[in-house]
């Protein structure tokens, strides 16, 4: 394990056999018995760690964002393309959520016809200290960016951000909520309400409106309590409650694929596309109006839609 | 209009043209222009009023219970059978409720196969003063008695009443809630939770479990408010909210049928059967165990199941 | 009654006492006993009929759109303002729907804080012959235009229309669905999915997202049938099913208010504002981008927000 | 591992280090490194295996039924009581289900007042070959028997079984569905619809009706698809879908407790009580009427309600 904070790292691995602790990525990757790499450091540290793993041919599970700026993300794509084989899985955990997977299977099955619109809601009870207006787009909405690309199997080509008067429940100066609109390369529309200081719950919903039907996920119903003139359902307060199983499956899918010598899940191209769209989104937030997304040509390694569609 | 309380009656009809007020039923029925009779007096007064209407050949809409005791109810059935034509519609308003009608149509359509069980819930916020343990059966559950007979097109043949420890929210001495079980002449089962001091809402639900599917009504969803960690739906506090439209349709159906010279809705036989089953229910409540329902032979006037089924 | 088709009109009023049939508005309004006017003719005929009613000082219930073009609508506003008293109620029936009224009461009550966004869905199974792309905005969305103004008590100040690739289920050439965005004079956002050939149901939903909670209406739950591995709820196919009671209440509210010598419901100003916003919406649809709404100054007769807020 | 079918057992453990396969329980328990025992053999083999584990002082996770006949189950209780410490956890997995645990916490919290009734539904798509009418009670309903004792913290004191006309979807001769009623030592009522050939889904629901409110679980809402005039939700077809996580937690809770030198979950007393109640239920099914449950005195080892309540 590599962590600049050696003491915390030692505490985390206490009792696990065969684990050594390092402050340096290179030293950690060179330790005996290292067969794969999980990168969970802050985003700006990802590029170096990914390139180090590539140099040793090690499979990597990298937390999102792959690399925050699209320039760095493109360098990763190009480096992996030069290797000629995929080593990278990006940690977009919604692809591993049971509800999202059912929605994906339904859309891919084609019974509802072509998807026309996705209506998305992304609400948090409150934002952590230091959360900026840009982070609503490039951190919160980045989940919807990947989910939309994956669900639709389409690239996002333009983004518009609307800024209603901020909620008095948001910290001063934070543009919260925002309403983000994406257009796709096949004419679909994706809208996202992002509201990270809504105060009342963690709610992630998605409705796909198609030519012959609509489908929606995210209406959790568990315990319904009726008392005092009202039926009441608890709403999750935290993403860990909603997505705990998805995180587990994400890591398990990576471990399983790695053992088979394969790579699954979101690719480095997906990580790059998410960064490029998020960057365009931040520009749209700051300057108003519609901002087109310009993606570099897709290397042959990611040529098929399979990476997007799976 | 006939009412022992003349002042109240006069107030009620103030401003309506062509309405005269009487304290005496006979006088009221004999007033010029009376073409039909609506009986909304307390149950014990119904028998006399019904017979008076029969004597004049006037169609009647009679509030439930038709006649509280089954002996009196049978006299009405026999009197109408002697007339040789139906004049009576009993005011079981659930037969006119949109949800119940959809359930009825579904069951009659046969797509779900034979009904095996009905699970019913009947809850009131609180009971009025003077409400007795027997009234939970012969007043509250009488709605389910008629609804079950009508939905299933079957007669109820036995009843068992279970008495859990009463709620501390019920008036002292009132056996509330009760759990009432009916068996039918074709082997179906009907269970009813009746809880008239539940404190939290007016809730009427019915789930029909059939050979190839189940169907349920009564889960009203209107305004959902999410705040403070919970999604909250108001629950109706009053039967008028839930069944207002059914009452309107009941009276309208009677007026329309009367104009066409027809009688529709629940018949005197339905009124009699409800009284007989309720009487057996009260015996089951008082003596414990299962009590069989003994119905008189059904007169030819009510020979088909049409009256039950429609 | 005035109708250019005398035969149809005579059929409609057959059996109603004291009703005469005319082909000419003036003649109809001048008939003895006319105390109020209900205008249900096509939109282009409204202006003349409204001015004729004003000339006689008769209260009017006018179907929406009050006058299709905002110029004509403004002439009505000015004419009524010159009269110095309100005679006009516009037939926006959602203001009379039980669910909308509960949502309005909740928002006005203030417990959820300031409304930030309204997310609206407006779907029809199919559009009638001759329905144009512009009519999605100025006929279908006009309901949301009025509902949003009324629910929020705010004017709409700008509109943007997004046009996803049309559904293959829509008639050739029809831009269906559309996604319409409104901004308000106090910084709220209103988005409307309008999809008039969705094929699967008539669905009208509204979610209000506020500073301290959200509230939504339009999730009708009635009969739930579980069979063959799925729980299934019928979805209404027609606006008459969803809004039948609202239409009744609208007319009743008008009759009651007229009897009291009052005017209630949506005003001529509301009718004008709806036309002006719809016109801007059609321009936004045709030319792309954001179009500002320019309203004439509000006459003193409509000075308070009461007309909007009621 | 002990299994009479050595080949299958060898296949099951292939690739797991330090696992030896035996046909004989004694030999397996005596193998080096055995620290705990998981019994997943058919019920009749449990008694011998439990006693063998007791003889070696090994903690045991025993699948339900602990011992099918209450006589044998009581021998286990007495043997463990003689040991003077708990070694046994019974595999009632619902105690580990997230929804049941929330319901339990709510009832224990007391905000809804005393529980008066539990309404339970237990439906399977179809029963396996050889399933008998008695097994509806002693295999299927045994889950509700334990869940009711645990949720209420009360013993079940009497049972009545009602037998509607069997569904034509059930194998010939099988009394399916059944309606089972339990009374408790503090006057609560528990009713269970058990229907193991319902054909349409695996549905496990529970509604607790209390003095000041009701609470229900089991209304799974995940993907809602609206198409062709109906909103449709898939219903799970299999208990593994519904309770997969509960099974995992059950085993994990046992492993964790065992590592801490503790025993958690359902006790041998719970296993005995379940067998005794199920036996009374089968008598009630076969002979009709109400059958009282006679439990042996509870040994001090299980003296507190903690085992029931936790």
Automatic annotation (TrEMBL), chains A, B, C, D:
Pfam families: GFO_IDH_MocA (PF01408), GFO_IDH_MocA_C3 (PF22725). Residues 100-215 form the GFO/IDH/MocA-like oxidoreductase domain. One of its GO terms (molecular function) is nucleotide binding. InterPro entries: Gfo-Idh-MocA_inositol_DH, Gfo/Idh/MocA-like_OxRdtase_N, GFO_IDH_MocA-like_dom, NAD(P)-bd_dom_sf. Residues 3-88 form the Gfo/Idh/MocA-like oxidoreductase N-terminal domain. PANTHER family: INOSITOL 2-DEHYDROGENASE, PTHR43593. This is Inositol 2-dehydrogenase. The lineage of its organism: Bacteria, Bacillati, Actinomycetota, Actinomycetes, Kitasatosporales.
């Amino acid at each position: 394990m590599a962590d600049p904070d050696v003491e915390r790292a030692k505490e985390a691995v206490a009792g696990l056999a065969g684990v050594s602790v390092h402050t340096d990525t290179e030293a950690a990757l060179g330790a005996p018995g290292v067969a794969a790499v999980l990168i969970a450091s802050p985003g700006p540290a990802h590029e170096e760690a990914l390139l180090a793993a590539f140099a040793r041919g090690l499979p990597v599970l990298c937390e999102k964002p792959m690399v925050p700026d699209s320039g760095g993300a493109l360098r990763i794509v190009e480096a992996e393309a030069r290797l000629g084989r995929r080593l990278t899985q990006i940690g977009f955990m919604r692809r591993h959520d049971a509800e999202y997977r059912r929605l994906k299977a339904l859309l891919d099955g084609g019974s509802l016809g072509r998807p026309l619109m996705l209506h998305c809601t992304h609400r948090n009870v409150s934002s952590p200290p230091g959360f900026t207006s840009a982070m609503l787009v490039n951190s919160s909405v980045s989940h919807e960016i990947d989910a939309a690309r994956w669900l639709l199997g389409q690239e996002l080509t333009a983004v518009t951000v609307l800024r209603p008067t901020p909620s008095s429940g948001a910290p001063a100066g934070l543009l919260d909520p925002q309403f983000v609109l994406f257009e796709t390369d096949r004419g679909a529309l994706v809208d996202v309400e992002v509201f990270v200081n809504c105060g009342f719950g963690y709610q992630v919903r998605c409705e796909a409106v198609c030519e012959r039907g609509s489908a929606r996920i995210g209406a959790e119903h568990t315990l319904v309590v009726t008392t005092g003139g009202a039926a009441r359902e608890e709403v999750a307060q935290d993403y860990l409650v909603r997505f705990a199983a998805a995180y587990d499956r994400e890591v398990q899918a990576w471990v399983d694929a790695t053992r088979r010598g394969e790579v699954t899940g979101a690719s480095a191209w997906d990580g790059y596309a998410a960064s490029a769209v998020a960057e365009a989104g931040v520009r749209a937030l700051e300057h108003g109006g519609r901002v087109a997304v310009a993606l570099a040509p897709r290397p042959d390694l990611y040529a098929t839609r399979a990476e997007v569609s799976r």
